[in-house]
Amino acid sequence: MGALADLVRAGKVRHVGLSEASVQTIERAVKVHPVTALQSEYSLWTRDPEDGVLDACRRHGIGFVPYSPLGRGFLTGEIRTPDDFALDDYRRNSPRFQGANFAQNIALVDKVRELAREAGCTPGQLALAWVLAQGPDIVPVPGTKRRAYLDENVEAVDIDLGPAQLTELEAIFPRGAAAGTRYPEGAMGAVNR
Questions:
Q1: Which is nearest to 109 in space by CA: 72, 145, 150?
Q2: Between vectors from CA 156 to CA 154 and to CA 161, what angle results, nearest 5°?
Q3: Total-model pTM
Q4: Which residues contact 100 (CB under 8 A, 6 or more apart)?
Q5: What angle do CA 24, 166, 151 make, to 5 degrees?
Q6: Which in 34, 42, 168, 184 has the greatest CB count within 10 A?
Q7: Per-run averaged pLDDT (10 residues), the chain, 193 residues
Q8: Residue 181, SS3?
Q9: Cβ 18 vs Cβ 190: under 8 Å
Q10: Helices (H) and strands (E) in the chain, counts
Q11: Residue 102 CB burial class (10 angstroms; 0-12, 13-18, ≥19)
Q12: Cβ(41)–Cβ(19) under 8 Å?
């Protein structure tokens, strides 16, 4: 943070952001220099930031930028089997996309699909609307390879989830509902540090 603060003072960097930082790291960082944004994975099936990170961001005026708000594409409902992944797709090695974890997670997504149908939107739009409903300081960055999906994602800003829908989503997808870790065991030690 000291080196980044020096770059800001030198005019070479405008703002400082962090990625996958823990509450302790955020607290240490802001003592050295203001942090503008924190990027971490956050979605219906990755709710780690709710363990104090979102509160720390809000306490220090740090914008929160969730990546993979569509659960690495899983929450779109388009992925139905591990065979849907190319042979070189990272998700083939991710615990959430393997074996019994995959089956348990598909069952959760099927419930989201049903709720999306009732709401008149796609599962992906519903998942994005949920992330957006978590606060005005949250700006998700869904990745996409196709323009049609980009347009679909943008339309999620027009979906206003009411208290009943948010409660229903919480019942379907409570914290910790997703089976499997989001990265293989060896990589999990590098997140939220």
A1: 72
A2: 160
A3: 0.88
A4: 179
A5: 90
A6: 42
A7: 95 95 97 97 93 97 95 86 82 85 91 92 95 95 82 88 93 89 65 65
A8: coil
A9: no
A10: 8, 3
A11: buried
A12: no
